[in-house]
Design goal:
By secondary structure, the protein is an alpha+beta fold. Helix content is 30%, strand content 24%. It contains nine helices and ten strands. Strands 1, 2, 3, 4, 5, 6, 7, 8, 9 and 10 form a ten-stranded antiparallel beta sheet that branches.
């Protein structure tokens, strides 16, 4: 595995700050929490045939959920049409945890860490206009054509009506190992039981800057928010190590379980905010592909968390 030094990790984190601005003590991306929630996940019988992971055994598993706005600006309006996220931490019977990190855009920004760094530099806003320099973005696409798919999907995003009515996808492929040692390759998707709903521009403008978090609170007061966890299965010829290639909705999939989100975390509202949700926080029965972006994420998360905590305590 390639080892990246602290200077390189800092360069990636600073690249994000170059895009969104620097807000010490806050996350570099997905900075605005839309709601820290608690819930319960129950796997399907099929899940145990796919993986021997403890949370796929069929017993109810407590979970902590964090919805977020995609920007690294913690004060951004919910009305920004952004790549919103849903991160889930499963609390396993032995006291360990494992995570799923997913976003609305099903493709990563780049297929390598070096591509990510180039992406951040190219899309950083020009101080004169407040927008990315078109020439820099054009040069980026020419040098790193793999970024094109993310740019297309991100540009096609529509404002969501609710955190509870969006599809969230993990762009990385993982290995799932069952009790017999058989491996299945796939990607996670969270499908909302309430269906997908978006807003027109007129409807969006009528909302306030915190409409998503307010709507989530009101919805949970009426009853649970439910998502189905689906695993899209890799097909022959798929490059499982390139997370810039999204898979079609028609791809064969397996239902892994049901997440019932019951309430916001009222007793400690900062709980989800203080957590690290890491897609490489694995448990037995789930492992990484050889995706180079996935390989560096743990180191980036740990460095970003250390910087965030140091800034918060300064």
């Amino acid at each position: 595995m390639i080892q990246y030094d602290q200077q390189y990790l800092d360069a990636l984190i600073d690249g994000l700050h170059g895009v969104f601005g620097s807000y010490p003590g806050h996350r570099a991306v997905q900075a605005k929490e839309g709601g820290g929630c608690i819930g319960m996940f129950t796997a399907t019988p099929e899940a145990a045939r796919i993986s021997r992971a403890a949370h796929f055994a069929g017993i109810p598993i407590p979970a902590t959920i964090r919805f977020s706005v995609g920007s690294g600006n913690p004060f951004v309006s919910d009305k920004s049409v952004d790549d919103h996220g849903m991160a889930v931490k499963f609390h396993l019977p032995d006291g360990a945890t494992t995570d799923i990190v997913a976003r609305m855009v099903a493709a990563a920004q780049a297929s390598t860490p070096e591509g990510f760094l180039a992406f951040f530099h190219a899309v950083a806003p020009d101080p004169a206009t407040g927008q990315p320099n078109p020439a820099a973005v054009e040069a980026l696409i020419k040098e790193h054509p793999d970024v094109q798919r993310f740019l297309e999907l991100n540009a096609a995003l529509k404002p969501i009506a609710s955190y509870a009515q969006a599809i969230y996808s993990a762009s990385h492929t993982f290995r799932f190992i069952n009790a017999e040692g058989v491996t299945t390759l796939g990607r996670y998707r969270w499908l909302p039981e309430a269906g997908v709903a978006t807003l027109t521009q007129a409807e969006l403008q009528a909302r306030d800057d915190n409409y998503l978090s307010d709507e989530l609170r009101a919805r949970l007061e009426r009853g649970p928010v439910v998502f189905q966890l689906q695993l899209q299965l890799a097909e022959p010829g798929d490059d499982i190590n390139d997370s810039t290639k999204d898979w079609p909705d028609t791809r064969r999939a397996v239902a892994l379980g049901r997440l019932e989100i019951t309430s916001l975390i009222e007793s400690r509202p900062d709980l989800a905010e203080s957590m690290v949700f890491d897609p490489t926080n694995f448990t037995d029965g789930i492992d990484a592909s050889d995706d180079p972006v996935l390989a560096i994420r743990k180191a980036v998360y740990e460095r970003a968390y250390a910087r965030r905590m140091a800034a918060a305590q300064a």
